[in-house]
């Protein structure tokens, strides 16, 4: 797993942050061929047998708003923690600011259940962990992940780990999930009139974009996790 780990956790982020050529290849040649060729070159350079075919790679890129492009990189089905299901490169086309995020295979250290970790590597080579989900039999959907990391990239308010709010505090807010009726608890501090907030329902894996207006959080839209296998 070491060489695949190197590829997903060292080389891809380095190229994402530092190589115009890599980014151009993704856009012009396509994610599948670019990733396949790059990974094969790494294995070849180490004189290791390359265990994948082109079908193990894939992805696409799409413009999310006026300034933001995301490239989704599909990677070989991970067999071990913390190999990646996929990675995401976000780019602000105005400022050229870039971010590299990952969906990693994880395991609950307590009961051994399957988990998925939403993580990333910053341009300095620091690993960031944003959120964990128990996901016994499915992979989080592309739409959910693109929306989630978009909020991280754009620094929208309201994405915090729920563990931070086990004890109720003055600024703790509660939204009843309209879909599953469970309570979504989030940090309401630093949210002002007119702010937009993204919250996650950990039970049914829905994301809600809220607007804070007249002292209330109004749901502007919602995106449902589609449980699609990718
Ligand atoms: Zn829910």
Write the layout of secondary structure elements.
Elements: H1 2-18, H2 20-28, H3 31-45, E1 58-63, E2 68-74, E3 84-92, E4 98-107, E5 114-121, E6 127-134, H4 142-153, E7 172-176, E8 183-187, E9 196-201, E10 206-213, E11 216-224
Antiparallel strand pairs: 1-2, 2-3, 3-4, 4-5, 5-6, 7-8, 9-10, 10-11
Helix pairs in contact: 1-2, 2-3
The structure holds zinc ion.
Residues 177, 179-180, 182, 201, 203-204, 206 line the site of zinc ion.
Summarize this structure briefly.
The protein has 4 helices and 11 strands; from the N terminus they run αααββββββαβββββ. With 230 residues, the protein is of the alpha+beta class. The protein is globular.
Structure description:
With 230 residues, the chain is α+β, with helices and mostly antiparallel strands. It has two domains: 2-153, no CATH class; 162-224, no CATH class. It has four helices and eleven strands. It has helices spanning 2-18, 20-28, 31-45, 142-153; strands at 58-63, 68-74, 84-92, 98-107, 114-121, 127-134, 172-176, 183-187, 196-201, 206-213, 216-224. It has a six-stranded antiparallel β-sheet with strand order 1-2-3-4-5-6, with helices on both faces. Mean pLDDT is 86; it is low at 160-165 and 225-230. It binds zinc ion.
